[in-house]
């Protein structure tokens, strides 16, 4: 539980950093934002109780998802926890960081309807379009976050912390950006 | 400099430059190859060069002090209209070229543009022109009755700095390091994802020698954090990554050195795993030893010495401030965990130095395994003051003058340090103050 609280706090702090990085003089600092997104990913994993977040911890039991997510599930989307559990893969932190992205890619690739690269890092605005940045951020946040920093797309409000919902196409129609930085 | 006991380290202040503006925050410090000149760059895009005064028999106590030699504006803020981004004028790195004639040359870089500057002295001027008078105004020709040969007369020393080359448009990402090759003809510049090789005389093109940008930016997992040419082998260079690895590359092997010749990395200690393990393993600086046999790296909590012949782990690891390991979350929150500390070798490669917080800097003697913590502060800035070793206490017995971890001032950080190439003289940049310390007891290298 303490881990989850700390993870929650770290997620909030990380989102705040990514948000404030956009207005920084000199442009986006790729190195710093990469590190922040790595921390965000670790914290998110712990917060969601995913295997690999804490070595050996089983996935958290899921509450019944809200109606939005029912719609998504009919579209072939599966909640994070169950998919990972189904795969039966437990990723220990003892593994070298280099292996982690390969494992994650494996996990992500198996889930239909999701972006293939879940552990994506924020793209530098220097080379990608604004929408590309947002897409990266969405794929980082995956399905449980509402902290969306892009202007074109609406932010998603998570109905419950940790609840699985909000596939990428759905986000456009949801709450505007101004109402959510962190939903928890 | 051997550390037989802490009392033997006697450092005195030679120069202290104080500035109060944000733009005066020193962002890089570099001695030239003889140690006669010391260059500093700041956030305002300025470069200040200090010159060591020759030792005088009349005033033996003032021997070898550094005074301002020249100041110039190297970079100005620019605006990239295409991307709507401001380009900071902050000087990220300065590197001196080996001196080949009476002039000195240095490279300075901000995030995007590298510039070659030539520093020359003028101490004579011609007098006795036929066509113009002393002020330069044209003479009335009817008053000229005879011809004279202009004569060179001494004048007050004037130091002139002129931009000789501007190496622009080579980098999409932020330049973090530059390094002059031992061939004295080429140099490299590294940004987050690419390293370019330039010829010092050619500005309109460069060769890309390392490119780690993935085809899909969402696959990005590591960036280049620092790079340096080998001091003797002009074909070898090293670059460090945000994942804590070092890659030694050989330019003879292929034109594009994406594939390393050697990969130096240490497996992570699972017992130290935390949310911030990746951040603290990111290498912020890499420096070859003067001998070329070793490399020194700095990550957030340690400095490590690597032997070029052993890729599996460093041969030495020194804890800079391990008491911060339990405070990583707070340091993440206040952004201190992203601070990039540099490291330095002394001339004989026997002592390594790096900065820390609270204006502390640390030195480690590789032979005796002793280390010392010193402070660059106002109290120690009085001329000929002797630096007293400091101690951070982490609970337990607390001695007088110890600082507790919770009292450390994290806004006072020493990121940039430099060591004279042959003598025990160090330059410490403490935010916007420059301290130069000299070992009074042993001014020659041991």
UniProtKB/TrEMBL annotation, chain B:
Top-level lineage group: Eukaryota
Tagged with keyword Repeat: yes
InterPro entries attached to this UniProt entry: PP2A_PR55, PP2A_PR55_CS, WD40/YVTN_repeat-like_dom_sf, WD40_repeat_dom_sf, WD40_rpt
Annotated GO CC locations: protein phosphatase type 2A complex
Presence of keyword Metal-binding: no
GO MF assignments: protein phosphatase regulator activity
Keyword terms: Repeat, WD repeat
Family according to the record: Belongs to the phosphatase 2A regulatory subunit B family.
Protein name, as recorded: Serine/threonine-protein phosphatase 2A 55 kDa regulatory subunit B
């Amino acid at each position: 539980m303490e881990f989850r609280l700390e993870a929650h706090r770290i997620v909030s702090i990380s989102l705040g950093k990514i948000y404030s990085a956009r207005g920084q003089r000199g442009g986006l600092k790729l190195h710093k934002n990469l590190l922040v997104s790595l921390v965000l990913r670790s914290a998110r994993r712990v917060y969601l109780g995913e295997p690999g977040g804490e070595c050996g911890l089983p996935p958290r039991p899921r509450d019944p998802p809200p109606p939005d997510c029912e719609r998504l599930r009919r579209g072939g989307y599966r909640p994070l926890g169950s998919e990972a559990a189904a795969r039966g893969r437990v990723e220990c932190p003892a593994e070298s960081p280099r292996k982690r992205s390969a494992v994650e890619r494996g996990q992500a690739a198996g889930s239909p309807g999701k972006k293939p690269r879940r552990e994506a890092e924020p793209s530098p605005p220097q080379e990608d379009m604004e929408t590309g940045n947002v897409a990266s951020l969405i794929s980082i946040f995956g399905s449980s976050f509402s902290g969306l920093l892009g202007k074109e797309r609406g932010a998603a409000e998570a109905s419950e912390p940790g609840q699985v919902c909000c596939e990428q196409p759905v986000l456009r129609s949801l709450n505007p950006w101004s109402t959510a930085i962190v939903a928890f | 400099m051997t550390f037989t006991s802490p009392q033997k380290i006697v450092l005195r202040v030679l120069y202290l430059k104080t500035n109060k503006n944000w733009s005066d925050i020193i962002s890089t410090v570099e001695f030239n190859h003889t140690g006669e000149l010391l260059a500093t760059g700041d956030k305002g895009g300025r470069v200040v060069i200090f010159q060591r005064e020759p030792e005088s028999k009349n005033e033996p106590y003032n021997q070898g002090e550094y005074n301002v030699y020249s100041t110039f504006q190297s970079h100005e803020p620019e605006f990239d209209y295409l991307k709507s981004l401001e380009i900071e004028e902050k000087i990220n790195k300065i590197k001196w070229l080996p001196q080949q004639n009476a002039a000195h040359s240095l490279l300075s870089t901000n995030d995007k543009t590298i510039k070659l500057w030539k520093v020359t002295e003028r101490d004579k001027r011609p007098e006795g022109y036929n066509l113009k008078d002393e002020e330069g105004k044209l003479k009335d020709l009817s008053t000229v009755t005879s011809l004279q040969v202009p004569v060179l007369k001494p004048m007050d020393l004037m130091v002139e700095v002129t931009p000789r080359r501007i190496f622009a448009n080579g980098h999409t990402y932020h330049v973090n390091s530059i390094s002059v090759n031992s061939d004295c003809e080429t140099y490299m510049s590294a940004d987050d994802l690419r390293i370019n090789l330039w010829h010092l005389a050619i500005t309109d093109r460069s060769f890309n020698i390392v490119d780690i940008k993935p085809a899909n930016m969402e696959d990005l997992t590591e960036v280049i954090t620092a790079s340096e040419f080998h001091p003797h082998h002009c074909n070898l260079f090293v670059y460090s990554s945000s994942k804590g690895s070092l890659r030694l590359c050989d330019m003879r092997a292929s034109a594009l050195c994406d594939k390393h010749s050697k990969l130096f990395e240490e497996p992570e200690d699972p017992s130290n795993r935390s949310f911030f393990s990746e951040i603290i393993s990111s290498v912020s600086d890499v420096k070859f030893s003067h001998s070329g046999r070793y490399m020194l790296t700095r990550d957030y909590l340690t400095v490590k010495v690597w032997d070029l012949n052993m890729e599996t782990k460093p041969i030495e690891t020194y804890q800079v401030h391990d008491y911060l390991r339990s405070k990583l979350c707070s340091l993440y929150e206040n952004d201190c965990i992203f601070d990039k500390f540099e490291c330095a070798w002394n001339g004989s490669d026997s002592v390594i130095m790096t900065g820390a917080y609270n204006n502390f800097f640390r030195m480690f003697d590789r032979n005796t395994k002793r280390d010392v913590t010193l402070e660059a502060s106002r109290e120690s800035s009085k001329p000929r003051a002797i630096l007293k070793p400091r101690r951070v206490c982490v609970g337990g017995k607390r001695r007088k003058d110890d600082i507790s971890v919770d009292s450390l001032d994290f806004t006072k950080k020493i990121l940039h340090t430099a060591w004279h190439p042959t003598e025990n003289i160090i330059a410490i940049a403490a935010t916007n103050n420059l301290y130069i310390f000299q070992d009074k007891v042993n001014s020659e290298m041991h």
